[in-house]
TrEMBL record:
GO MF annotations, alphabetized: rRNA binding; structural constituent of ribosome
Keywords: Ribonucleoprotein, Ribosomal protein, RNA-binding, rRNA-binding
Name of the protein this chain belongs to: Large ribosomal subunit protein bL21m
Region: Disordered, residue numbers: 55-86, 236-270
Keyword Ribonucleoprotein: yes
Residue stretches of biased makeup (Acidic residues): 66-86
Pfam family, one: Ribosomal_L21p
NCBIfam families assigned to the protein according to its UniProt record, in alphabetical order: L21 (TIGR00061)
Source organism: Cajanus cajan
SUPFAM superfamilies reported in the protein's UniProt record: L21p-like
Family: Belongs to the bacterial ribosomal protein bL21 family.
Gene Ontology biological process: translation
GO cellular component labels: cytoplasm; ribonucleoprotein complex; ribosome
Composition bias, Basic and acidic residues: 243-270
Length: 270
């Protein structure tokens, strides 16, 4: 654009420089009006580009326009090739787009599997059972039992009210038996439901270098996922024993009175 503006300014001030219609425009110096015809200096117009034999082109030449058009056509062809591909997946800036298989593999590495959204007819919440399990999610381990809620680091590929199966069960225990995995218990799983995605409390990171005028303050809030444990499978669950009811205070007092009367009767008879 700057070269075109310079050319326009030159054409306004010196229109005699660009009279030739050819694509290669040479700058010529016209003879002075008072010069004599016999003077050999001004006999022929001297070319301003005589010292440089190779051609010089301006930005307004036809060749440059054709090159620009060819580059645009090449870019359009590349875009069409990408769009025509069946396996091509458009990725947004800074985010990786995962396929279904990649999602399952990465979730399995973390230690869970997404079953699907929770339906209204699903009766997943059960009463308490005297069974516990030690589960690994990512790099953290949790001791859980039926009805507990835990906070883990933000889990990918799951939304609120999604049902999960935690596969990495390290230990199972109950009142009658204990199963230890090496390192994982086979055929054992813990079922959970995603309750919410939240942020942890803010942590302040402060850095300082003394005598260097260097101070940096940063804040961080860790993303968390809240899980509700609904069921533990892979171990025999003992039946809840019926506990005897404790007598109330009034019944205790009545029993004490009856015992005293019987003692008095025995003393009188004796």
């Amino acid at each position: 654009m700057a070269s075109r503006r310079c050319l326009r300014a030159l054409t306004k001030t010196t229109p005699f420089l660009f009279r030739s219609s050819s694509s290669l425009r040479s700058l010529t110096v016209p003879p002075f009006p008072r010069a004599k015809a016999s003077s050999p200096l001004f006999a022929k117009p001297a070319s301003a580009f005589a010292r440089w034999p190779h051609p010089r082109y301006f930005s307004s030449d036809k060749r440059s326009d054709e090159d620009d058009n060819s580059e645009e056509d090449y870019d359009d062809d590349e875009e069409e090739d990408y769009e025509d591909g069946d396996d091509y997946v458009a990725a947004s800036r800074g985010k990786k787009v995962y396929t279904a298989e990649e999602k399952e593999a990465e979730a399995a590495d973390i230690g869970y599997r997404v079953v699907g959204p929770l339906q209204k007819d699903d009766d997943v919440f059960k009463p308490y059972e005297p069974v516990f399990a030690v589960v690994q999610i990512g790099s953290h381990q949790f001791k859980v039992s039926n009805g507990d809620s835990i906070f883990t680091e933000r889990l990918k590929f799951c939304e609120v009210n999604d049902k999960l199966i935690l596969n990495k069960v390290l230990l199972l225990g109950s009142a009658s038996q204990t199963i230890v995995g090496r390192p994982i218990v086979p055929d054992a799983s813990v079922h959970a439901v995603v309750e919410e995605h939240a942020l942890d409390a803010k942590v302040i990171i402060f850095k300082k270098k003394r005598r260097k005028n260097y101070r940096r303050t940063k804040g961080h809030r860790q993303e968390l996922t809240k899980l509700r444990i609904t069921d533990i499978q892979g171990i025999e669950k003992p039946q809840n024993a019926i506990k005897p009811e404790k007598p109330s205070k009034s019944t205790k007092k009545e029993q004490e009175k009856v015992a005293k009367k019987e003692k008095e009767k025995v003393a009188v008879t004796a």
